[in-house]
Specification:
The chain is built from five helices and no strands. With 113 residues, the protein is mainly alpha-helical. The protein has one domain (7-108). The protein is globular, with a radius of gyration of 14 Å. The N and C termini lie far apart (31 Å).
Length: 113
């Protein structure tokens, strides 16, 4: 998988999420990972956008732009590689929201240490 600069963050976010989401979400994630390389890259982008949304140094204006990219990416992933796109798009949205909240908490906890 083409992990880039923030490999540790991405892997931690993905594994934490994967262990805490419902079976439907896990199935959706597995399908993305086992799909074509293009969809693995989209998952990489999804995690990257979630990390950017969780970054406390990003301004609200930047977050609005990131949020638009995130919503468009979720829609594209659901349509292109998942069965029942409408249902799985909401699963992916829940996954992304959980990713952002969970990563913000972990960053906050690390800063307090």
């Amino acid at each position: 998988m083409p992990w880039d600069v923030k490999t540790d963050d991405k892997i931690r976010v993905l594994l934490t999420l994967y262990s805490n989401v419902s079976e439907n979400a896990q199935r959706a994630i597995r399908e993305i990972i086992h799909s074509k390389f293009l969809f693995r890259r989209q998952l990489d982008k999804l995690i990257d956008l979630c990390l950017q949304m969780a970054d406390l140094n990003v301004s609200n204006d930047e977050k609005q732009a990131i949020e638009l990219k995130l919503v468009n990416l979720l829609h594209a992933v659901a349509l292109r590689c998942l069965p029942q796109p409408e249902k799985n798009e909401s699963v992916l949205k829940a996954f992304a929201i959980y990713a952002i909240k969970n990563h913000k908490q972990s960053v906050g906890n690390n800063n307090e240490s």
